[in-house]
Amino acid sequence: MMKYRLGIDLGSSYTKGVLVDEQNKIAGLHCVKSGYSFNNASSKIIEHFSASHEIQYPVYTCGYGREQTSAAFVSNSELIALSKAVYEVYHRSCSIIDIGGQDTKFIKVNANGQVDKFKMNRKCAAGTGSFLEEIAFRLDITPEEFTGFAEQAKQEVKINSFCTVFAISEIIGMIKNGATLPDIIIGIYNSIILRSMEMALVEDHLVITGGLPAKHPMIVSLFKKKYPDSDSPEHSQFLAAFGCVLLNNDKNKP
Amino acid sequence: MEELLKKTEPVKLESTTELRKTMDGYFTRLREAAETRNRKVAWCTSVGPAELLYSMGFEVYFPENHGAMLGAAKNADKYIPSAVAHGYSPDICSYLTSDIGAFLQNETPLQKSGFKAVPAPDILVYNTNQCREVADWFGFYAKHFNVPILGIHTPLSIPELSPEIIRSVSEQYKNLIPGIEQVARVKFDMDRFREAVGLSHDGCALWRQVLEKAKQIPSPINFFDSAIHMGPIVVMRGTTYAVDYYKILLAELDKRIKENISAVPGEKYRIYWDGMPLWYKLSSMAKLFAKLETCIVASTYCNSWVFDDLDPSDPFESSALAYCKLFIVRSDEVKETVLENLLGDFSADGIIFHESKTCARNSNNRYGLQNRLFKKTGIPYLEINGDLNDPRCFSEEQSIIAIETFVEQLAGKSGK
Prior knowledge:
The complex is a heterodimer.
Chain A: E1 3-10, E2 14-20, E3 26-33, H1 38-50, E4 54-55, E5 59-62, E6 73-75, H2 78-90, E7 94-99, E8 104-109, E9 115-120, H3 129-139, H4 145-151, H5 164-176, H6 181-197, E10 206-209, H7 211-215, H8 217-226, E11 230-231, H9 239-247, H10 249-252
Parallel strand pairs in A: 1-4, 1-5, 5-6, 7-10, 10-11
Antiparallel strand pairs in A: 1-2, 2-3, 7-8, 8-9
Chain B: H1 2-7, H2 16-36, E1 41-44, H3 50-55, E2 59-61, H4 63-72, H5 76-85, H6 94-104, E3 123-127, H7 133-145, E4 149-152, H8 163-184, H9 190-212, H10 223-229, H11 231-235, H12 240-258, E5 269-274, H13 282-291, E6 294-299, H14 300-303, H15 315-324, H16 332-345, E7 350-356, H17 369-377, E8 381-386, H18 396-414
Helix pairs in contact in B: 4-6, 5-6, 8-15, 9-12, 16-17
């Protein structure tokens, strides 16, 4: 029976698992909420794939909960893993902007696939997935509804506040002054893009990854307006988990 | 297993026992002065005119040292809110806010050493060379204790140490004397001042030698050791105590080099640290870097206490020169050159900039210096956000991920 390697990215909001076959091809994807226990989350991922595949241990982990699984594991840096996977897809130097649950990361990958430079967001989660979830909760809409609203926008309103809580007060003030929800949603999306852009200068091909662009494809289109030379690869939310397996490729190929 | 654990932990310096004795002696002298009032107590800023005060018979207390103690005791966040409630912004120096907050709560880590409270000052003397906050900080205590406060106002962002600047600061030194004499009730004695300046010079020269031992590959000492072992050069500069201690430490480092003992077992990467220490995370950070086989070989912070321009034959002018030459009070152009040289001298593979939320003057990545330095040297850098004392400004998990990634980045670059 064929053995499969498993990469698990235990992120602050979601835990993502990628099953990889002997040819380094993605054979399965599964994502669960991280919740309060990273071990539970990784167990769910392992159980999900074990039902139909034989998994080879150790599993390869990254993310905040990278060492909090009861399965045998090899831990990796999520930034290095993500860079590895992105390089596997593009085979060229590029800049990555990854927007996750509470981190935004900028990574500059060189022509050899090595990390030349990276930066993480400052001690503030504005402009990340948590920011959107909080705003959705306060506006009583689901994050999934964001794109639908954004498509109806006629003009953009500008969100100035750096702070999620004060951004909400600002939005409430805008609603009071007659701004429409679609225009506000576009404003929120653009504030996220501006927060990412201040991390570093993007001087080459921009690759957008992470849970937030995966769930809000409008973000990718808005990035494209500012950086025509940009795109978001398939399964971008799962790339760090995939990269974990690739990083350990030579050592533990079944 | 125990063997494995030992391998990934920093190797402790044996001189730490002697360091403790030296520091205990200092605090005992201070406590006796405070209790018996047989000697006057002066409060001084950490790069203030300590030599002058020691030469005039004071026991000298340094609130910044106390601030670091509060941070290292992981208590700053307990005290800062009290200072904030008294009108001090949480965005200003967290040494100041934690120190004043602790004072308002009538608590000090010195109570463990038998002090009832911090030793009450007879006079406060500051130098603004490091920041203007020290004047406000000391002003609070001058008002509370109703004692004189004197200060030296040094120009900021000095590009070139012109004769005018040195003369002005030297004059300010001299102008302190009548006020200090009045409190000390002794006359200024030039010979005793020369002696204190000479001892300060000797202590600094030894401290420089200690720091420079880290040029050795592998290094016998790391930043986390230096941040602790710098105690005597901060609080006993100008006395024999500091000189005596650094001779002991230096001998141990020489022995380590001879026996090929490194501070970080299996040292693979060498990093320069710019900015303040994270006092509340000193030990866990030391362990993290040791686990990553990475030695922080030099730092702006520890290297700042090297005042070897002090010269007993010209004590005023040389004090002015030494304390204006200080890294923190120089222009970004000068800082850039200093950092470039240090990176080369210590064979650093990378540099970490710690941007302290409440200490702009010790955060050197706010005006693009990090990018300019990278363009010049090609040495990779990492910026981490935190604070010297306020743990609420530091995201530990995020920073650990950043540091681990940075070391992997260095590994990828060097192929080690």
